[in-house]
Amino acid sequence: MLSPHWPPYLPDEAECVRAVRMLNDGYAELAHRHPKRIASYVMLPLPHIDVALREMERGFDQLGCVGVNMNIICLNRSIAETEFEPIYAEMNRRGAILFVHPAGTGICSPFINDYRFRGAVGTSLEDATFVLHMIAKQIPHRYPNIKFIVPHLGGPIPMLLNRLDKQGQSQSGHPNLAEAPSVTAKKFWYDTVCYGSKAAFTCALEAFGADHLVTGSDYPVLQDYEAYKETFAYIERLGLPKADTDKILHHNAQKLFGFRH
What string of H, E and C letters represents the secondary structure of the chain? Predict the structure, then answer.
């Protein structure tokens, strides 16, 4: 699966469309050259909704893309904001897969960025923020046909489910949610990028279940101390039941995307 981390979200609509179409065409061409090994997502020229809907249509119907890729933050706006609702409505109509990724903003916080933790911590906080915003706006409940993939095991979300259920629905939080926050969070799929942390992985496994973890490589963020084979091989060393390991490494993503295996 190919997806650049930072689609070119630009204020100028025409420039944004040109940049996104160029990338979508390039990735689709690569996928068509290697159809048994590679598939591509369609990126959207956000925040420009009408042209984004047209590019989504082109990506699915002409380029053969298998899902949509969006950044969690678009020009310092959460993609859970109301102006993005037409995007979710169309993905819901199509039963589309949505893969989201941090925008590298450090959640727009000087508490993260001024202390130079934008990459090390800010990305995981963006992942968590996306899940929280989806819960607050009830987007997965209102658009149940979308299949969401959140990277990096959802950041700290796995360890917060109980607290979210107990405090997130309080009068000072979101008392009118249609479902408990943990119910919404467990509807998502989460990729396995966690820099080999057994503690993080087993926490997510217990929180979400083996059926909702899919492999991720964090490409192209290759650290100087690792090889990409380790982004998958560490899972086999965790001592999980073989059935769980097989699901996570070999079957969940194929089933989610409808690939043969």
Answer: CECCCCCCCCCCHHHHHHHHHHHHHHHHHHHHHCCCCCCEEEECCCCCHHHHHHHHHHHHHCCCCCEEEEECEECCEECCCHHHHHHHHHHHHHCCEEEEECCCCHHHCHHHHCCCCHHHHHHHHHHHHHHHHHHHHCHHHHCCCCEEEECHHHCCHHHHHHHHHHHCCCCCCCCCCCCCHHHHHCCCEEECCCCCCHHHHHHHHHHHCHHHEECCCCCCCCCCCCCCCHHHHHHHCCCCCHHHHHHHHHHHHHHHHCCCC
